[in-house]
Amino acid sequence: MSLLPDSAHPATVLLDAQASTLRLPVCDHYSGVEARMRKSLELQAEMTAEFGTCVFDVTLDCEDGAPVGDEAAHARLVAALAPEARVAARVHAVDHPAFAEDVATIVGEASHRLSYVMVPKVESVDDVLLAEKALERASGGHLPLHVLIESPAAVYRAFEIAAHPRVQSISFGLMDFVSAHGGAIPASAMGVQGQFEHPLVVRAKLEISAACHAHGKVPSHCVVTEFKDPERMQAAAGRAAREFGYTRMWSIHPGQIRSILAAFAPAQSEIDQAARILLSAAAVHWAPISADGVLHDRASYRYYWQLLERAQQTGRSMPAGVQPWFAASSST
């Protein structure tokens, strides 16, 4: 079956104001110790070659990774390590003494090699504005901001934060969120099971996810600290994706990356179904069709196109008929 010209490409026809066009790798891998940062970047290159696309970002960590009192040297190390790949840096919070120097050093020296800057402990749009001004002073005015929400007050302001045009993604800081409640939330809510059950934690996750989807941003799910259990890790990632609407998740150990990819990837049967429906739709210039006795139109076409995009992001095998769509996308 032949495809339609570029003017009728699914990304052109289907992704209107009702759908976010922002796509990021589904996994964001954090490392802050020099040896681990280097290994993370090597692993990123290896898995990019394996899957044919970059399947995870690497965020080099200055907040938890920098030795106390040696923040400036750690920032210089991060700037030096940043390659021309999908790599970012987490700086200190805007009210930390090292924040300004972090941004000046890392962004000032490596802005052209960074994909974004992650700012932790964002409480309000005012913090976003402070970070934005710091980026501009360091000649990083083109860089998106990823922000980490870690308190009840920040969750309350999630929709305002997500609305800021510089914000590309919002992450949830589970452990700080729990501790911010002064013992009102038990420690079990930080675990792989409790974090999906405690009402206040569930509410916070849903608020952040809803805020991101309302403003076309990417919701990024928090860490799972039980990194030695890949099955529990994949189960948690699956719940984050299927039940909570997250399209991205943090990794804090290399062993978690493949579990996140597997959880966020569509099943092959879903990929094949999406391809059949979209190819049939393209053949009739995106008019409604009937497939297996079910009516489909542009609303469902949009869903299936996004499913194929997620399959491509996670390195899944794509049916031959739709591969030209993605070759065209990568060349533009």
Q: How does this structure look, described?
A:
The structure is a single chain. With 332 residues, the chain is an alpha/beta fold. The protein has two domains: 6-16 and 267-331, no CATH class; 27-264, Alpha-Beta Barrel (TIM Barrel), CATH 3.20.20. 47% of the residues lie in helices and 13% in strands. The chain contains 14 helices and ten strands. It has helices spanning 10-13, 34-51, 71-81, 99-110, 125-137, 152-156, 158-163, 174-179, 199-214, 230-242, 254-264, 268-283, 298-313, 323-331; strands at residues 27-31, 56-61, 87-90, 117-119, 145-149, 167-172, 218-221, 248-251, 289-291, 294-296. An eight-stranded parallel beta barrel has the order 1-2-3-4-5-6-7-8, surrounded by five helices. The chain has a two-stranded antiparallel ribbon with strand order 9-10. Strand 1, helix 2 (34-51) and strand 2 form a beta-alpha-beta unit. The longest helix has 18 residues, at 34-51. The model has no long low-confidence stretch (mean pLDDT 92).
